[in-house]
Write a sequence for this structure.
């Protein structure tokens, strides 16, 4: 009985959080009310407040879900880059640029960025999300995030993030001529691909050299005759 109750409770919480995301996309975080979330989730107001007593706890649950879901999705894609026979940079750029102008991604993240200027809790979570995404990408590209050589690559990935997120603000609404976005996308690839490939090659070369020095400097075991 307890297992069924826990499962039902988890399902209710999931439904409430997904409904809260939909409300945020439509009305923003400031316009998200518990009453509207309960209506969309198809649950009674008292049932919602049983799981999330106030707006702050529900916003925190939304941020938890977004962080987990987006990072899982990003890590899955980033891990697939190692299987690419050519440069992993172009598929990474393609995926990020296309995802940035997808309706739900843009709607959520534009709202999170705007809210982070007023809410330290949201600002901290958004910063953590981007930091973890960059570290996952560095690791998937075959570079240790802890290596000194990862620094320039990390900076280039933050530059990529800035361009990608800016494209959400400029093009996600769909009010511009699609040809304008395609021209922007082509120029973004033209500018960012060589930089990222150069930084990746630098990081990989430095990592390989460091490993080589470690092997050469390793004390040799002397076997007595």
């Amino acid at each position: 009985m307890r297992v069924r109750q826990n499962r039902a409770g988890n399902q209710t919480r999931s439904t409430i959080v997904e409904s809260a995301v939909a409300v945020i996309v439509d009305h923003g975080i400031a316009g998200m009310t518990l009453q509207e979330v309960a209506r969309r989730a198809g649950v009674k107001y008292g049932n919602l407040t049983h799981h999330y007593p106030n707006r702050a706890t529900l916003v925190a649950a939304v941020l938890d879900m977004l962080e987990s879901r987006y990072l899982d999705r990003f890590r899955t894609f980033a891990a697939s880059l190692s299987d690419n026979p050519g440069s992993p940079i172009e598929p990474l750029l393609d995926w990020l640029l296309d995802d940035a102008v997808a309706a739900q991604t843009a709607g959520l993240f534009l709202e999170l960025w705007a809210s982070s200027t007023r809410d330290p809790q949201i600002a901290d979570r958004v910063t953590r999300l981007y930091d973890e995404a960059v570290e996952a990408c560095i690791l998937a590209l075959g570079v240790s995030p802890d290596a000194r050589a990862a620094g320039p690559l990390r900076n280039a990935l933050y530059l990529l993030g800035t361009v990608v997120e800016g494209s959400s603000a400029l093009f996600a609404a769909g009010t511009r001529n699609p040809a304008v976005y395609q021209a922007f996308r082509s120029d973004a690839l033209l500018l960012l691909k060589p930089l990222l490939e150069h930084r990746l090659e630098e990081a990989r070369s430095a990592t390989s050299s460091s490993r080589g020095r470690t092997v050469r400097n390793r004390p040799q075991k002397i076997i007595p005759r």
Notes: The mean pLDDT is 85. Residues 57 and 76 are 29 Å apart (CA to CA). The domain at 60-211 is CATH 1.10.357 (Tetracycline Repressor; domain 2).
